[in-house]
Amino acid sequence: MDFKVQTTGLEALATAGADALIVVLGGDSLPQGLDAAVAKHAQAAIKLGDFTLKAGQAITLTSADGLKAPRLVLAASGKTTLAAARSALASGLAQIKSRGVVSAAVTFAGFADELAESLAEQAVLAATDAVYLYRHTKPSAPAAPKLAKVTLVVGKDSQRAAKSGLARGEAIAAGIELARECANRPANYATPTYLGQVVQEIGKAHGLKVDVLDRKAVEKLGMGSFLAVAQGSDEPLRFIVARYEGAAKTVAPVVLVGKGITFDTGGISLKPGAEMDEMKFDMGGAAGVIGA
C-alpha cells in the first residue's frame, strides 16, 4: 500500500482528490476550522439523526456537494486519544472496504497538534489492518479489498511529523504482516525449518547475525525440555537466535523470546476436534518476535 502526506489542511478538505475522503472527528462537537463543505454535511447528518459524535459512529455520504471526492466518510472517535482515533478510522475504513475504493484521503480533526506523528502511525496500522487477508494457502479466499493508496491530509506545520509517523507505521505494519503470514500458515507449511529460513532471509536483508541450531547443537546445550517436546514430531527441530548488534556495548541488551512450537500436540486427546486447526498458533510468540 502506498502512503503519502498532503498539506491541504482542515480548511481545504474539499479539494482532496481520492475515491473517498475519511474525516475522523474527535471530541463531542465539530472541530473549529473544519472545511465548510465537510462541516455542512456533518451538521446535516447530525440534524437528521443519521450521525452522532459518539464513539463508533460512522456514515458514508455520496456525491456530497462541494467536495472533490465522490464519497465523504465521517467517523466519530468520541475521545481524542490515539486508541480512539485508530478505532474510529477503522470504522471509517470498514465503510469503504467492500466498495471498490482504490484511494482514500484521511484526516484527523479535533486532535492535538502534538499527536500528528502518532496519528500518522496509527493511520498506517489501521489501513493495513483493514486490507489484510491471508491467501497463501487459501486460493478460495475472497478477493482482497482494492484500497492501495492512502493520503494523510495535515496542516503545513505537521508535515514533517506526519511523514515520520508514516515511515514508522509502515515499518511496524510490515512486521505485523510478516508475523501474521507466519502464524496463519498451516503447520505443514510453517515448519521449524521454514521459520529458520525466514529469519535467515531477514538477517541477510537487515544485517542481523542469525544462528539456526539443529538437534545436535541443542543436545550439546542440554536443552532437555525442548528436545522432549520436539520428539512429538517427525519434523526436525530448530532453535533460532537472531542478534542485532547496532547499539553501543555499554547499552544493556533487549531480549525478545517467542515460543515457536509449530503445532501444539500436548494433551491432544483432550482438545475438541473443531478447534484443532488453532493449534498452529502455538508458534504465535515466535511469529511476533520474527515480525519485530
Task: Describe the 3D structure.
The protein is 36% helix and 16% strand. It has 2 domains: 2-184, Leucine Aminopeptidase, subunit E, domain 1 (3-Layer(aba) Sandwich); 192-291, no CATH class. The strands form 2 sheets. The protein has a 6-stranded mixed β-sheet, sandwiched between helices. A two-stranded antiparallel ribbon has the order 7-8. It is of the alpha/beta class. It is elongated, with a radius of gyration of 23 Å. The mean pLDDT is 94.
Architecture blueprint of SSEs:
Layout: E1 2-6, E2 20-26, H1 36-48, E3 58-62, E4 71-78, H2 82-96, E5 103-109, H3 116-131, E6 149-153, H4 159-184, H5 192-206, E7 209-213, H6 215-220, H7 224-230, E8 239-243, H8 284-291
Parallel strand pairs: 1-6, 2-4, 2-5, 5-6
Antiparallel strand pairs: 3-4, 7-8
Helix pairs in contact: 2-3, 3-4, 4-8
Short description:
The chain is α/β, with parallel strands linked by helices. It contains 8 helices and 8 strands, in the order ββαββαβαβααβααβα. 36% of the residues lie in helices and 16% in strands.
Key structural traits:
single chain; 292 residues; alpha/beta; Leucine Aminopeptidase, subunit E, domain 1; 2 domains; six-stranded mixed sheet; two-stranded antiparallel ribbon; 8 helices; elongated
